Structure prediction request, 360 residues.
Amino acid sequence: MRNMNQLFIVIFSLIFLLLSTESKSDTTSSILKNTNISGQWFLNNSYDDNKKIDRFTLKRGYFTIKSELSDMFSVRYTQDITLDNEGEDAGNVEMRLKYLYLKMKLNHIKLLEDTYFEIGLVHRPWLDYEEHINRYRVQGTMFIERYHLVNSADFGITYVGLLGGKLDEDYQKNVSNSYPGRYGSFAIGVYNGGGYHAIEFNNNKTVEGRLSLRPIPRWHPGLQISYSFIYGMANTESNKAIFNSNLLMLSSESRYHVATAQAYFGKGDFHGEYSDENGVSLENVGYSLFGELKIPSTSLALFGRYDEFKSKDTDIFDQNTAIAGIAYRFLKSKVLFDFNYYKNYDRIIRTYEIALEVIF
Prediction:
């Protein structure tokens, strides 16, 4: 952590030097002019068929400020708002940082013009990519986060880039403008490993990377083949638990559909949950299928998902999830109704949910 603290001191010193080159009034005016404020809220009412509990709640909330400091540098601050479900503070709304980073574009270098660095509390390579394909984060977390393998943000450095220029404007406008590299995109980085809401318990750093390729961008630009890896140690004081992850995904997107198929194999997880009594990591496998069908000439969509996760050495951690629902899209937001079936080693949970995602 000491090295990371030193890094942040350097980062904020650079920002101060950049701003100090202008007068105070000019700097304030420039920052306000180039600052955007946005938000994303996940609200829901769910009924647990097992506990017979009917509850309105806040699933998640994000408040983001982005500011362009120059053509090269920008900053982001995102506040994560959630409901505390444990301990004496259960029921209280908590706020914590999700992202706090300096972004440095490399557009002034011709060969690197579609690449950039994030330094600070940053995106990790995989989940931000997947959440821009499967846009149902309001329903719940993605596959590898749902089974507590890793989360979406951490202290560290991420390098992101597009391959082969950008897709045409029609595809970006009508299908997706996320990671719009004509032949794909990549991301790689080094992180503390414990995630954005954990203390660093060891001196190990975790390396994570992603490579996504579009094999036939001319005929089907929405088809991508992606591979992601994680290599390091779990964030435990014993520093015994290995954390290795390999994830393959085939995805397809168009105006009217989204489909993904993932296969996972690895050892351990980022906080040492999947380990034996001696702290040695267990080998895990799993897969996830997701589909969305957008009904033409309407704002309705049908969606479904099925996950399965297993540990090779014990059945205690065996889990699977089935989700089905219908969504209504309006503006940038959506409201959905879904049924969620979750099975663990010794329990089954069935929930019915109405969820609202508000984006502004």
Summary: The longest strand covers residues 314-330. The chain has a mean pLDDT of 90. The chain is about 15% helix and 50% strand.
